[in-house]
Structure prediction request, 130 residues.
Amino acid sequence: EVQLVESGGGLVQAGGSLRLDCVASGIRFDDYAIGWFRQAPGKEREGVSCITSSGANTHYVDSVKGRFTISRDNAKNTVYLQMNDLKPEDTAVYYCAADNTLIDTPTAIGIACRYGMDHWGEGTQVTVSS
Prediction:
């Protein structure tokens, strides 16, 4: 059974930083692409950043480019999302997701980041105050 557990959310002032962790179990981690998605109240889910199984290819939504960095440590079954210069519009529940059907290309990870992945965590709340 795939389990994805997010942590690191919280309340931060605008301009601050948070790091989200996604720890996976029940899978061969280095076979899986991992993504971070978010959903704010009244808004559709949005793919924030995704990384392929090898870590060679990443994708970011335009609104976070230059502020967020995704990385993975396959030895620890963990993907990180470092979020800097946070803005009130980054406030949302952030979900970790996994998919083992993707080829390791920029196009594939971009598509998955837009349309979603197969397995999901329960989310962690990020609140940015102005």
About this structure: The first helix runs from residue 106 to 115. The mean pLDDT is 96. Helices lie at 106-115. The radius of gyration is 13 Å.
